[in-house]
Amino acid sequence: MKKVWSMLLAASFMVSLTGCGGKAEPAEVATTAPVTTAAQAEKESKAAEGTAAKEPVSEDVIVLKFADTEVPGMPEYDGNLYFIELVEKNSNGRIKIEYYPNNQLGGDKEIAGALMAGTVDIGKCAAGNLADWTDAAAFTDIPGVYKNAGQMRSVWQSDLREEVTRLIKEDMGLTPVMFDCDGGAARALFYNGNKEIHVPDDCKGLKFRTTGSDIEMALFQQVGIAPTPMAFTELYTGLQQGTIDGIYTHPAGTYGNKLCEVTDYCTIINLSYITTFKLLSEKAVEKLGGEGSELYNIVVEAGREAEVHKDELIAANNEKIDEMMAEEGVTIIRVTPEEQKLWNEAAQAIWPKFIGEGKMVDQGLFDRVAAME
């Protein structure tokens, strides 16, 4: 059923490109410009001086369009540039990647639609936003499943990587090439109000933006938050105008997207380490020569190397992110062990809704993940 739903959504996305006026659709790139990496800039400079190395002439250059939501200056953005340079270097220039970051081609769901429609070749989508099409990565949204980001990386270096990849291919026709820890840290509650949040009861009556994930919405309802769907690109205005009271996301992305300007409090709760995927479209796989081809393998291996490199960049950034947020006027609350216990109990209360036979997350799979260190 998910597969059929994916095909219908992709078809409707294609219709929207030709049948709607007004705001440009994500896949229209005439008014956007890709980022030029340092390696690309150096190559162009040498070419202008007449000293550029000769490019391969036996094969045409394959151009892949990469849609992303990351912003310049953040470790995920730098890690994606590293991935691009790896691919171009290891392919000896036979693959060129045009990078469109900072929501130029839309948010997660728009990018996923463009990937399925084949108008984007590589794109970013967090696990919660993939829930419209597949349950393959639903377990990564379960609050309390991971103890830390290191455990999440262990999961994606195990055989579960191939298992989840296969399921996403079946449901969406997309191939994950990078499994990133979204923001590299536990989710935090960012609140724009006049009180601090320490325990779940402090959340009652508040409106928080939700990605639409059933798991996230269940957690919100468990602690008294009214889940409010909203596109990521609308968050700044939503927080500023009071359409929503807060967001549940990682500190690095909140700082990088300037959302600290419209939030007053940040409560770090060690519950959710969300996976964000970088995915290849079916058309991109075909361009590269098919699954298992030399160029396909170059992209996949570059993704594995780049995701670990990002972990290192994010870890270094997390050491100073609190200070950076405080400079923006955000009050940071770190819960006590007793308060954390209340959050853990709230998270575990929703597990039976999603974990077990015939449910979104298989019990055996969940147990395998929870057992990893």
* Major beta-sheet overview: 5 strands, mixed
- Write down the overall mean pLDDT: 86
**Straight-line N-to-C gap:** 34 Å
**Helix count, DSSP H or I runs of 4 or more residues:** 15
Strand content: 5-15%
Quaternary organisation: single chain
Structural class: alpha/beta
Task: Give me the side-by-side strand order of the main sheet.
Answer: 2-1-3-10-4
Give the helices and strands as they follow along the chain. HHEHEHEHHHEEEHEHEHEEHHEHHH
Number of strands: 11
Roughly how many Å is the radius of gyration?
21 Å
Short description:
The protein has 15 helices and 11 strands. By secondary structure, the protein is an alpha/beta fold. Helix 3 (75-90) runs antiparallel to helix 12.
Provide an overview of this structure:
The protein has 373 residues and is an alpha/beta fold. It is 46% helix and 14% strand. The protein has 15 helices and eleven strands. The strands form three sheets. The chain has a five-stranded mixed beta sheet. Helix 3 (75-90) packs antiparallel against helix 12.
